[in-house]
Inverse folding.
């Protein structure tokens, strides 16, 4: 399963905020960076969704009495899903904060 690199996401957010302060429209590299950030964000959201789906399926299998699924495995999968979701909430909060900061900048 893939992990979420919050440090990389925060670095991308800071880079986007710095580019918003400068002439980003004239910089094609800035536009490519925006596309990369959006793809990375989408991939991270999909990874969190996969973790949550795996956790749900493991819980259901354990409740149904599947001998191949143990309680520790279910608890670990649930912990990974919860941690991934909390990380995404923090990333969302940082994105909203960056957006609000950009909106407060004088034109």
């Amino acid at each position: 399963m893939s992990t979420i690199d919050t440090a990389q996401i925060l670095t991308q957010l800071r880079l986007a905020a710095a580019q918003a302060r400068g002439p980003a429209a004239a910089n094609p590299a800035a536009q490519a960076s925006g596309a990369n950030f959006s793809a990375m964000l989408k991939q991270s959201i999909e990874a969190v969704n996969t973790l949550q789906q795996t956790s749900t399926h493991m819980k259901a299998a354990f409740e149904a009495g599947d001998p191949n699924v143990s309680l520790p495995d279910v608890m670990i999968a649930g912990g990974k899903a919860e941690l991934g979701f909390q990380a995404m909430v923090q990333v969302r909060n940082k994105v909203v904060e960056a957006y609000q900061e950009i909106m407060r900048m004088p034109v």
